[in-house]
Amino acid sequence: MKKALLISTAVVVAIGAAGAGAMYLVDGQIDNAISQLESQIPAPMTLSVVSDSSSFTDRQLVLKVGMELEGDSVYVLLNNDIQKRPWGTSIEHALTLDPTLIELVNDEQAAAFLSTNFVNSPMLAGHTSVSMMGSYQSNLASFSVNETLGDVNVVFTPWTIQATGNASGNIELTSNWNGFTLVSVDEYQEMNFNWQPMKIMADGKYHQGSTFVGKQTVTGGGASFVMDDGYDSANFQMGPFSMVSNGDLVSDRYKGDFRWDTESVSFNADGNVFTLNDLVFSMNMSGFEINNFTDLSQELNAMSAAGSLEPSPEVIRMANVVLQDGFSIGIPEFSAKVDGKTAKMSFMASLPQNEIADLGNPFSLMGLIPTVVAQADLLIHKDIANMPEVSEQVFSLMMMGALMEEGENYVMSASFENGAAKLNGQPMPLPF
Predict the structure, then answer these.
(1) Which InterPro entries match (predicted)?
(2) Which structural domain, as residue segments, surrounds residue 194?
(3) Which of 1, 12, 82, 190 has the most CB atoms at less than 10 Å from its CB?
């Protein structure tokens, strides 16, 4: 009996020790996740810990996520109520606007609206469950608004996000939004903006928190904007659209493609309605060394957010590295139809791996030119070419000999290879 009691006591102690170890492991995983986020969050965003209090079974963690745009800063607070258990972790999230930002809003009605919907209640809230092995499942929902503020009525439906992932960084995400409507009517003008339901899906992994490797899709019902002041009106309509993006790594080289399809886009120009149908824009790229490409992208994002047009020495250095890596980039299709007639173009260019690319040395760039291969093609139906919006540009290209007649279309084909250029099959002199 005594032996059995000792054994059972030992088992209880062992389970307790294992549970305590799991608790400390959970804290370590959270600390590692914060450090990883701080190091990988893409510029110009920043992340810092505002407060962090922890007990054996609970942890309250508040993170501050900021973004600086041309000298102005915007901050949000991510509150995390963490329940730690040996078998996993439960986290309640609440994203709110930094209260100090309300002080910058001069309009009392707007300040009250922001305080109600973004400070006193979360913009985004939800729950995440994390297993002992690091896999997780999150369910989040944004705020919703259906209010009238003076002459303006705002309807913003909740944006929902469901995500699953693991400790390796893989993520599968589905997000749905039922849209947004803004209507403003006063004695001077009427304005109506409407964004139809949209869905986002992603399946893949972020490399260094920036470049997504995997598949992303966005589909939506379109958008409309109408404004009328009794004398003039503005009207923009975009029909249903879809976007598909794929990214892959081949021997640490990034390969990606992107395609955007829109059923129709129409707008009024000089009192006339102009409609484009079956719009397609596709793009691909390959050959970029993933780490160098990611570093350059982050530096360029930071430069853009700061409003700087002058590249830093680090940006130039990274650009030189990417140019030396070599790459291919192309626009396989950029097309649209007007009254059933087609206009389309395509483009591709490639630069081989090299050791001489240097943006600070014009002679090195001259040495690269013979290694570049490029091709561009254009087709435009004559009915589109004769439209007032484009006829002047088309006429200029025809006078230059760049456009040629081919049945019911005007066409152009330009190529560059081995340092020589051709236009519509004929040699074309270059200024260098």
Answers:
(1) DUF945 (IPR010352)
(2) 144-371
(3) 82
